[in-house]
Design brief:
Length: 85
Amino acid sequence: MATGNRKVERVQTGVRIEKRILKVLKAVAERHDMGLGDLIEGIVLHSFEGRAPFGQDTLDFIAQIRTAYGLDLTAEDSHKLIEEE
């Protein structure tokens, strides 16, 4: 095992997420050759420490992918989302 690796216990979860957000997350994970779960863990761990999870290159990529998938939601929308009927 490489120095610095940490053993963790992972669990399967049934998280629901907005469709276009998921598409963008999958594209970012693919770009970095990592699984979706690993990407989400990284985003959360950075956020817990008040650190930005992405550099400028990735943010530029995300902006392109958001446009491609029509993701117009922003952080302002985060607690205002409701399910379509």
